[in-house]
Write a structure and sequence with these properties.
The complex is a heterodimer of chains A (111) and B (116). Chain A is built from no helices and twelve strands. Chain A has 111 residues and is mainly β. In chain A, the strands form three sheets. In chain A, strands 2, 5, 6, 10, 11 and 12 form a six-stranded mixed beta sheet that branches. Chain A has a four-stranded antiparallel beta sheet with strand order 3-9-8-7, with no helix packed on it. Chain A starts with a strand and ends with a strand. Chain B is an all-beta fold and 116 residues long. In chain B, strands 2, 4, 5, 6, 9, 10 and 11 form a seven-stranded mixed beta sheet that branches. Classes of the chains: A mainly beta (111), B mainly beta (116).
């Protein structure tokens, strides 16, 4: 069974700092990769996705992620965070129709 | 368009009682999924419907959990009798298969279940 590992459980940083969240997965076949975000009190929202093509994908709100096949990684980045980026972030891998999620990373941005 | 709607948003019940969670997917979405997150852990797959048929229920914890999707529209997830370890957030998601063959799931806000 495939697994998804997120490197950090909780990240605390100041506004304007850069953010990088690590994600590694175990499945070796063709996968689709996603980052979801859950803002406080809201539902899970799709931040960005990778299916094929350019391994550097851009999502909403200035986020981007890079798929490195050789490292089985799909790390999420944002050059300069804002207080409103405080949320929980989930990496997910899809094989066929089923999504497997990481445990989530809580990001707290201090004003 | 309306999103995925889940009800109730929070339910507090005692061990041994029954709870039914409901999910209304986005209209036209044939695929409906249930996921669960136990506190602090990853979101785990429970089952997948295609229209009214169960495509995969391999993630259902045990036979105390029963999911239905009569008519291929909304779905219910019943827990009977509830146990303490059933506490968590139950997410519903829906999707349709787009041209690329890849489904993008839209999630509901979740139903938080607390079993005392």
């Amino acid at each position: 069974a495939q697994s998804v590992s997120q490197h950090n459980h909780h990240v605390i940083l100041s506004e304007a700092a850069s953010l990088e969240l690590g994600c590694n997965y175990s499945y070796g076949g063709t996968v689709n990769l996603f980052w979801y975000v859950q803002y406080p009190g809201q539902h899970l929202q799709l931040l960005l996705k990778y299916f094929s093509g350019d391994p550097l994908v851009k999502g909403i709100k200035g986020f981007e992620a890079e798929f490195i096949k050789s490292k089985f990684s799909f790390n999420l980045r944002k050059p300069s965070v804002q207080w409103s980026d405080t949320a929980e972030y989930f990496c997910a891998v899809r094989n066929d129709y089923k999504l497997s999620f990481g445990a989530g990373t809580t990001v707290t941005v201090r004003a | 368009e309306a999103g995925v709607t889940q009800f109730p948003s929070h339910s507090v019940i005692e061990k041994g009682q029954t709870v039914t969670l409901r999910c209304d997917p986005i209209s036209g979405h044939d695929n409906l999924y249930w996921y669960r997150r136990v506190m602090g852990k990853e979101i785990k797959f429970l089952l997948h419907f295609v229209k009214e048929s169960k495509q995969d229920e391999s993630g259902m914890p045990n036979n105390r959990f029963l999911a239905e999707r009569t008519g291929g529209t909304y779905s219910t997830l019943k827990v009977q009798p509830a146990e303490l370890e059933d506490s968590g957030v139950y997410f519903c998601a829906s999707s349709f298969r787009d041209g690329s063959g890849a489904n993008v799931l839209t999630f509901g806000a979740g139903s938080r279940l607390t079993v005392l």
